[in-house]
Amino acid sequence: MKKNNLLVISGLIVLVFIIFISGKRSTVSADIKDFSFVAGANIFIDVNDRYNKIRAEDIHNRFERLHKRGIFNGTYLYAENGRVVCEGAFGYSDFRSKDPLDVNSEFQLASVSKMFTAYAIMLLHQEGKLQYDDTITRFIPEFPYPSVTIRQLLTHRSGLSRYMSLADQHWNINTPINNEQVIDLFVKYKPSPYFTPDNGFHYCNTNYALLASVVERISGEHFDVYMRDHVFNPLGMKNSFVYNLRGDSVINHSISAGVPGYYIRGRRIRQAGDYYLNGVMGDKGVYSTVEDLYKFNRALETGGQISLSELEEAYKKGSPDYRGRKDNYGFGWRLKDDMDSTAYHFGWWKGFRSYFVRDMANQRTLIVLTNTHSGASSTVYWDMLNDETRNFKLAEIYQSLN
After folding, report:
1. Is 21 inside any structural domain?
2. What is the pTM of this model?
3. Contact 215, 177 (CB under 8 A)
């Protein structure tokens, strides 16, 4: 009997508690809604806007100072969390006419072109038209180094010698040379490799020139046409193209495509002319803009044409770690050892320097294109990605909202 009474009393207490809570619920919920959800959302938006404004001003001022010091003539774009924070242009597209640069100016990317060649190879892999461990002779049967694989070309572990040195020795430098003619030189002269395939790392432009030839052999299209139709146009990169000398029999004094490149030594400014090796595609030759490159960056972030799982292969270390190597190399990207999930590439060729850095852990991207042979150190650009060097204080921004 006492046990039943206790159960009844306990039930009444629970019922009263539920009624009490129900009566208060609307008031408490209203208070939370008014204070936390609405005000908090506004603060969040305001803080991010102010943070991006401060960051944009800081980065712009840094480029402005570099330009005033005479070590930056070009364009830049900085993005974070899928959003362009700032972009700009400083200097001239043509030093003679004093035409100014803008964010749609087209620059030779030099070795930054390699990421696009790797992208084309990955696209063909996704379509089942090649495997990374296929030997190159599956697609170029006459090539005299049968054990070299596609993967080894991508990661610079083929051991092949430099095609540029071979061409300098055996080609008339007053006549353009193309990818197929480079293959012919290797077939004819069979230069000694630096090492047997996969027994070392050697960054070499030959690897990516051959990869462009693989794209041509598989697709039946010239590399520049394939890139236009299968990469640039689908990604909306309307101001990007691969320069080539197809059909030319002589070397012109200047390049009509894109902005000119320049050599600057003191007060002497000399425009870079065309060059016979510009007929070789894959290792260099892509012209693009900072805005087009950001479209490419977004495709890499979201998995546009190529799935995200497929793209992960590009950021895997191609070589074992060992003392003395600064950074590793994936598929068309250098991988920075002292920064988490950071892929980058720099380019330097005939009056142009380019920088493309992707801090994937923090979703930051910095793209810098210049049309002068010398300029600011890459350390300057790494610092722009480092929060500590900018000394942003979010607490101060929060405090300013009160």
Report:
1. no
2. 0.85
3. no
